[in-house]
Design a protein that fits this description.
- This protein is an alpha+beta fold and 251 residues long.
- It contains 12 helices and 7 strands.
């Protein structure tokens, strides 16, 4: 079940025909990998028409932009996030975040074409990032995102692990982060795991059932991704500071 105020945001986006994909913690909730998330995060198409529809949806929620940048296509195209705070009855205090470009994730049209849709029972169909794109989007420098990636992958593997397709098997070999499950998949699919180890070195430890080395390899992967994300955001943070200074000077 979706919390009532989250459902009201979905309904506003649907009423105004916004092209958007749920991501972040709320998407993880619907994939069964989280129990709670206090904000709502969307990937949105950043063309002029869709941006105007987003404005109308946010106006219906009495939402205002907080901090910087302003809600304009040019800032979304740069890879910045825009943050709204809702004030309408039923959603007061709820934050809604919007992005168009994310590190390591394909452009909006591609992720829209492979979106995952669910019927929640309380709202119309909700469009989510496909779990593959959600995992990529979660590879950030924030500590809290990594347990969520692990849980997302566990849910996918345990629900579909009996007879995986070629694509599913490749996905699991690339992204599973639970040592026991990596050893399990390496035991069941040794040839595929060995072949993939040239792209993901920690898999060789799964094949050899060296748990300590496997855990160390997973930590190294995480640290490398965190550093990539830090470097990605370095110029974007500088851009945000520039916008903050401009905003202060204009007041």
């Amino acid at each position: 079940m979706i919390e009532k105020r989250i459902r009201l945001v979905f309904e506003a986006m649907q009423v105004h025909n916004v092209a958007c994909l749920l991501m972040g913690g709320q998407a993880c909730v619907l994939y069964g990998a989280a129990e709670f998330s206090k904000d709502v995060d969307f990937a949105i198409m950043a063309d002029d028409g869709n941006v105007e529809r987003v404005r109308e949806a946010m106006e219906s929620l009495a939402a205002e932009v907080i901090a910087v940048p302003p809600f304009e296509p040019e800032f979304l195209a740069e890879g910045l996030a825009v943050h709204f705070r809702c004030h309408a009855p039923g959603v007061a205090g709820l934050r809604v975040d919007m992005m168009t470009k994310m590190r390591g994730v394909d452009d909006f049209q591609m992720i829209w074409d492979r979106r995952f849709s669910v019927e929640t029972g309380e709202a119309n169909v909700v469009n989510l990032l496909d779990v593959r794109d959600l995992v990529k989007a979660k590879k950030t420098q924030r500590d809290k995102d990594w347990p969520m990636i692990q849980r997302l992958m566990e849910v996918q593997y345990l629900a579909n692990g009996e007879n995986p397709s070629v694509d599913e098997l490749e996905f699991w070999l690339n992204e599973l982060r639970t040592p026991e499950l990596l050893i399990d998949i390496a035991t069941r699919f040794p040839l595929e795991t060995k072949a993939r180890a040239s792209f993901r070195p920690c898999l060789k430890h799964a094949v050899e059932k060296y748990r300590d080395q496997l855990e160390r390899g997973l930590i190294d992967e995480m640290l490398e991704e965190k550093e990539r994300d830090r470097r990605h955001w370095e110029p974007l943070k500088a851009r945000l500071e520039e916008l903050r200074r401009s905003s202060r000077c204009s007041k």
